[in-house]
C-alpha cells in the first residue's frame, strides 16, 4: 500500500517557485510539489487537505464516462487582476445534484457537445487550501502573460479514479496523449490530493504532434514520464505547446478499495460572448 508522505516533501524537477515559471516559459510544462507551493509540514493546510479528501472520496460518477470508474465535480471561478478578486460563478439548479456547471472541452482537438457536471460543493469553495492552490496557479499565468487588464477564467475539477477490487481499472478521458484545446493562453495545473492502494496513474508529457497517440506508440515524442505519489505533487502544462496523458490506475496489493484523487485547474483569459 502506498502511504502519503508528509506535506512539504517533493521530488519536483522544477526547483523554486521562480523556476516553475521558467520551466513553463522554456519547455511548456513544469513539475512542482508542496515545497514550491510554499507549504511546509507544520502548515495548517493539512486540515484543509483532509477536508478536500473527504469531498473527493464522495464524488459522484462522471455522467459522461460510464464504466470508467471515474468520479467528478466541476465549477467555474473568475479572477479580476486589477482588484485581486476571486469569485466562484454560481451553478445552474439541478434536481439530482443541487447545482451543475456547463463544461465544454476545447473544440480544437476533441469536439464534444456541452456537458453539465455536478458542482464543487458550496462548503468547499471557501476551503483555504483550495483557494491557495487556485490563486497560486493564477499567479503563474500572470507571471507568464501580460493579462493584468483581462479577467481570467478558471475551470476547477475534482477527479477521482477509484477501484474496488483486483483486476479492475479506472481510466481517465481521453485515454491517450491529448490537448485540452482552447486559446494559446490556456494553462492546466494538476495537484495530487490523495493516492491510496493503487498502481499506475502514470503521467506523460509529449509534443503537440503526439496528441492522439499512446505513450508506447513508435511516433510518440515524449518530454517527461513520471508518477505523482506525494500530497500536492503536481505539474503544469501550457496546453498549446505540449500534449499530456494520465494512465489507468489499478488496485494495489492491500485488501480493499484504492483511489487516486486530483485537483485540476484550467486557467485562460475570459473571452466575452456577445
From TrEMBL:
MF terms from GO for this chain are: dioxygenase activity
Sorted alphabetically, which InterPro entries does this protein's record hold?
2OG-Fe_dioxygenase
Region (Disordered): which ranges? Answer: 1-20
Basic and acidic residues composition bias: residue spans:
1-16
Q: What is this protein called?
A: 2OG-Fe dioxygenase family protein
**What species does this protein belong to?**
Streptomyces xanthophaeus
